């Protein structure tokens, strides 16, 4: 007797629906901190190091961020990318130790401490230097702790307990020792030459501490009267120069010309009302630049008396434009290969103390280098008439003095890119001061060795090679001295008699040992000179250098106090920073290591771009377009930030903002839902269910082929020894696409029927669960470097071991035999044809003809070469229909037809066999068999 409709049995309890404790909502802001506590409780980092003993080491040496303020989004990008590289290398079978570090010395911290002094009305210069340094150390210590906690909240794994800092005593000792190496090998010297100087901060600056902004400069056309020249018609004529730095005129000691440039000897016959020139003036100006000068100077009618090559000016002597006002020296005209006709007048006024080209030309011809400017940017007594005036306010006074002297030809303004200090945001000047330099070319041949090392280094992207090489090729000697208090002092003594530095290894050894136990403060303690010079030298005969070393030298030395002392390999496998570090940390590290070791400190250099807002603009608080990582983690969690990094092309500038974060959250949701369905559908799986590869249906074998493709990409990027190492761009978007398109929208969709409704021990169901087991293990491992928290959660949801972690695993082994390009091509064609069918089914659904594809038995007409792709039964399975008809045709085409029969109450397929069973009249035969097996 069959059940009546009113007594129809409810079969929902017999369906194998997914079961998992893994929730749909990530709730990452709450779950992630708990996961961090769990990892700390497990001693996860220590366990990783212990189980990695004996493996090939991989070391990404950390470029130190500055311990000053909360982290910004650029920090997050950098550390997340480093963490992904490290975690992936670890899972690829390496021992990926990572020691995070900090840059702690330098001007920004001094400024902050000085600001606190100013707010309390204290005079910084009245504070004993050791007390001041102690306050700087305390400030850096505070922010180092804050940043460490913020980096760890991002999920960055590392040896946080044994992090490095440039202000640690052993670090300061090593830095002093590295300076000593340059001193002893002869590369370190004290010299007078122009450096970038900040009048506000009263110190020399490195190129990496400079940024360029638009700046309005006053311009000056000045006349130099020729007193002597080979040609008589040139004597008494005025050579006209043009400059954007009128304040450098007191430092002028020569004028440069181009030997091959054509110059015009111009006789002025008419001028405008506002012109500073007079009728009868005879002027020398480069012929190509004459039209522009006529306009700037207000010249009307004029005659070019003749055109001459610059070489004709050899040996000429001019008068300084302020002759008679304390500038009564001759100004020689000298050939300069840097003189061009791109702008100005074709003549360059030479102030040897205020420009690189000027200095080099002055040194070549023995010109004096007057020190006309004080540390604070005011003129010294060597600038008669301007003493005490600040250089940035001097142009009016210079104009007035030259107007009175009759040597002012024209004035103006120019908006141009000008160097500024990146800290104070104020303009800098070129100023010749006595500084300590490391020679690039003398003896040690640092430049040549550095360029040779660049050629051997792998750059990702490769464009970084030429960028760094061109900088090294063109740079001057390295100025490493700074006139500040918070840093490692340059531990050198200079003989007052000879002016030469003492090159004594014993002194360096004493300094290093003292710094190791007392820190660099030892240099400033009473009696330091006698202590370090030793009993055989009289401190009164020596100058103790009180300059500190450039912080770029310090950070460039980190390899020396981080790698060998911790037993880590040198050179490091990888340096990874933003592209601005070609002129910063990459640059200084290369020069420092080549100078002391003869080799680069890295085997590979990887650079990433900057972070911009969604419109591609630079972030600024004033514009309100800043995305703070702390805010993102509060709203979304760290895994969303980590996913954003790895979904981007990090070689380019990245964009971030509210809409982009929403997109990343949606991509994350899809990946999470894939993991959740996987976990639910593989629940209770045991090895006894496993189906051997040879017995798997084609669909399962196709999925495993895709696993081999993704595994290959992950391993290629992860393995530091692979040809495609560190090539992460596109890898995680492809994993997302695999989850969303290949799995969720295709494979899972097709196999839901078998997983939910087949008998528990059916081959098809066991085959699917065999593959789901592999997918769960693979995806958790592949996602672990990026979605560090979510991958752990998804792993523990299936394998709840209180001592376990996905991060203790390697990437799972993927047999080469799973790769099947022929099968992949076949299933690519099947998916194309499936699209033809589903398009027709969508039309029927839109028309209200069907509600579900299971109500259909479509007809697919295919060419002969496609006829044997699948059987009609497998086509029905693949298209998720109840029946299927194959027909011949010249080109693929599909049509809708309703499925004959009744709907099964359990699997919902529409089949003629539904109703034939006496015991289960609402079920199809497959479902009847499954239900009976459960009873």
TrEMBL record:
The gene is ileS. This is Isoleucine--tRNA ligase. It comes from Neoroseomonas lacus. Binds 1 zinc ion per subunit. InterPro entries: aa-tRNA-synth_I_CS, aa-tRNA-synth_Ia, Anticodon_Ile_BEm, Ile-tRNA-ligase, Ile-tRNA-ligase_type1, Ile-tRNA_ligase, M/V/L/I-tRNA-synth_anticd-bd, Rossmann-like_a/b/a_fold. It is an enzyme of class 6 (ligase). Residues 700-856 form the Methionyl/Valyl/Leucyl/Isoleucyl-tRNA synthetase anticodon-binding domain. It is found in: Cytoplasm. IleRS has two distinct active sites: one for aminoacylation and one for editing. The misactivated valine is translocated from the active site to the editing site, which sterically excludes the correctly activated isoleucine. The single editing site contains two valyl binding pockets, one specific for each substrate (Val-AMP or Val-tRNA(Ile)).
